[in-house]
Structure formats: structure tokens, C-alpha cells
Amino acid sequence: MALLHVQRSETEADSIGCVEVLATVCSIVLMVLTLPISLFLCFKVVQEYERAVIFRLGRLRSGGARGPGVFFVLPCIDNYCKVDLRTVSFDVPPQEVLTRDSVTVSVDAVVYYRIRDPLNAVVQVANYSHSTRLLAATTLRNVLGTRNLSELLTEREAISHSMQVTLDEATDPWGVQVERVEIKDVSLPDSLQRSMAAEAEAAREARAKVIAAEGEMKSSRALKEASDIMCESPAALQLRYLQTLSSIAGEKNSTIVFPLPIELIGPLMNFTSTLGVQRTTAPAHVPVVRGGPSTTTSTSSPQGDPDHQPPLERQHQQRCTLRYRDSGAAGDRKKAGPSVVGSASSYSVSSAEDSALCSPTNRLARFILDL
User: How far is CA 4 from the centre of its chain?
Assistant: First the structure.
């Protein structure tokens, strides 16, 4: 049976060869009879970026693709097909893809390819361009289905390379070479976009707080070092003091800052406290009233003498009016007018102004003025 099959194949080849030879002779005769019109039908031109695949009586001619330049065909028996060798690009329509972590995204891409073998591109596939487009869409869904969302957003280059290798292996029998694949856009659902935006905002705020805390820590350390240096050198402290006064004086304001060392204020405060103790323990002039308003005797001490009292005490006695509170002699004293009687424990200030002038603060101020 095998021998019979081989003999039949040889017989068919011989018959086809005879028919081809007869058709070729007839075509040549016709071309000669129709000269010079047949010259326009016999000679064809192929560009540098093109190749021509010639079929004679339906069979691929030996010698491969023709071009670039001029090639010869016989009318009526030869047929040819031009193939463009330049790189062609096309967009892959957006594909709804379910990622590995069950997130639905819409992804589109762009594919760049060219014809590597013109013979296979014509013989092995009916429409290499359409077939490559369909295969690219399928490969895009298959590759992205094995990745999670984070990889899809951060590893686009690796995903594109994986798609390019897969497509190139699938289209190699067709004579098509896939040169490059690029992912154009990844569309996420609105709810997922809002959640990712909130997460990114929280991360940015956290980083900002960390940076602010580090800045405060550095500034605190620098301030501490500066204060330690100034404490070690009193001259530097005084220089800083003068610089501050100079900056304040440069401003347009009516406030005058007068530096007063605490060493001068301390003795004044101690002296004021001493005066307050003496005022409480040793009363000054204590008048005593015996009988009626006309008979009045008084006892005095060296401290109660106005001539021996300090200036602040004299001002105090001049501004403070002392009244004697005795219910038995109230009527007679009203007729005779006010009299200065009483004891140190029954002093009272006659007005709000006298009370303000008798305060420790005013006493200190008046003492400084007297000095």
C-alpha cells in the first residue's frame, strides 16, 4: 500500500508538472503576441519595505519572496501577494480582568509587531493582523489574571515583558514577531479609588508628623546646646541681651525696655519686707482720749515721733486718717469735729485712693523715688 501511494503521488506530480509547463508556454506565447502592452502586466515593482510572495497555478514558487526592486510574472498563470515588513502597532481594547485578589479592573494596552517571515505570514495564517489582535486581547486577560492589584499597579514593566514573550511564542509559526507590549491604562472602580486615596492621605499625614517631630527634636537639641554655651560665657549672654534690645529698638513702638538686674531688686524687696514687719510690730503715734473732746493727752515713743520716722512712714500718716470708734463719746466728737484718736489695730483708710497709695507696691515705688 505504501508503495502504491508513493507511485500515485509521483504520477500526480508528473501530471501537474506537465500542466504547468503547458500553461507556461501558452502564457509566453500570449505575452509575445500582445507586446508591448503585456510588458505593463509582466513587470512589477516592490518597495524596500515590502516583499512579494509569488504563486504559479496556486503553487508557491521556489526562491522565496521577491524584492525589493523589479520582478517578473507571467500573465494569467502567476499571482503574487505583497507583505509589509514595517513595524505595525495597534491598540488592545479595554479588557475587564479579574485579578488574583478578586478585584475587577479594566486594562488596555498597545502592541508593536512586524513580519519576520513573509512566506509563513501568507501561507500559515489567513489574516495575520486580525489574528494577532485577537491573540493579544486573550493574552492580556490571561497574564493579568495571575497577578494581584498591587503588582498590576507597581510592576507594569514586568507584566508587559511577560505579555511580549507569550505573544511572540504564539505568533512565531505565523512569521510574526511581537517586538513590544505596553500597558496603557488601568481603570479601578470608584469605591476602590476612594479607599486608596484615603489610605494614601493617611500615609502622607503620618510621614508629615514624623518629619515635624524630627524637626522639633533637632531644634530643641540646637537650642539646648546654644543655651549651654551662653550659660558658660556671661559675655555671650550679655551680647545676646544687647542684640535683643537693638532689635526691639528698631521697631516702631512706644514700649521702652529697661534691663534691671535681679541683684539690685533683691535688696529693695528685702528692705520693703522689713518695713512691713516694723509697721506691724511697732505702731507709731497712738493718741489716747480721756474724758471729753477738750481734754486730750497723748503718749509717744521715739518711733512715733514724726521727725524720727522714715519718709515713707510720714507719707503714710499724712495720707491715712485714723478714727477712734467709741460709741459713748460719738455725739460730742461730732460737735467738736474729727479728731485723730485710736490705736494701731483700729486704723482704717479714709478712701480708695489712700488704700492704693498704702499698698506695698506703691510704697516701694515711692521709696525708690525718694532715693
Answer: 83
